[in-house]
């Protein structure tokens, strides 16, 4: 049975005028159904991260439309829409190094001005998420003390904090060795399915792409589906 569309992008264009005119994205369209996992692949410089940032309202498109959970993003950064409906995972982790692991996981809830006091539902959710990513024992460690793999597991837990419908991951294993990359791939896709989340991941890694339901290639500014092997 066809699932509701969580994200719809129509005719997304992105061009830069400086330092030289560049048309990076050409009328990119994409529909992603609830609960599905989608991989976007392509060579460096093709605009994969730019596209993901536009889909997540972190960056403005030149033209086109983005709709998230039935709400139009109006081609501009929308903090409320983003914080409520989207969880992000970045290649460079984007953790606050001088904060604890738990504080980092709870940061989306803090930004949303939710009660994160000890014992609150969100606080307990943060501890539960850390348990699911295997970091219960690190909850009160400073983030700077973690290994790369532990930092990315923290980022995965953080992306689920506000219970968003959509998870966007930009090269989530790009800074990890092969062993840790495989563990992150399995953890990310398993948690997304367990929590009934929709996942869009930008990756060079074919192993990660193979764990997704759909795979697209971004080439010459156009997005085309390919068969999942």
What spatial order of strands do you see in the largest sheet? Answer: 6-7-8-3-9-10
Report the principal-axis shape.
globular
Can you tell me the CATH class? Alpha Beta
Poorly predicted tracts of residues = none
Number of strands: 10
Structural commentary:
With 229 residues, the chain is an alpha/beta fold. It has one domain (5-226): 3-Layer(aba) Sandwich (Rossmann fold), CATH 3.40.50. The chain is built from seven helices and ten strands. The chain has helices spanning 48-55, 79-85, 101-111, 121-132, 148-159, 178-194, 206-210, and strands spanning 5-16, 22-33, 37-41, 63-68, 71-72, 86-90, 166-170, 198-202, 214-219, 222-226. The strands form two sheets. A six-stranded mixed β-sheet has the order 6-7-8-3-9-10, with helices on both faces. It has a four-stranded antiparallel β-sheet with strand order 2-1-4-5, covered by helices on one side. Helix 3 crosses helix 4 and helix 5 runs parallel beside helix 6. The chain is globular, with a radius of gyration of 17 Å. The two termini are 23 Å apart.
Write the layout of secondary structure elements.
Layout: E1 5-16, E2 22-33, E3 37-41, H1 48-55, E4 63-68, E5 71-72, H2 79-85, E6 86-90, H3 101-111, H4 121-132, H5 148-159, E7 166-170, H6 178-194, E8 198-202, H7 206-210, E9 214-219, E10 222-226
Parallel strand pairs: 3-8, 3-9, 6-7, 7-8
Antiparallel strand pairs: 1-2, 1-4, 4-5, 9-10
Helix pairs in contact: 3-4, 3-5, 4-5, 5-6
In short:
This protein is an alpha/beta fold and 229 residues long. The protein contains seven helices and ten strands. The protein has a single domain (5-226), classed as Rossmann fold (3-Layer(aba) Sandwich).
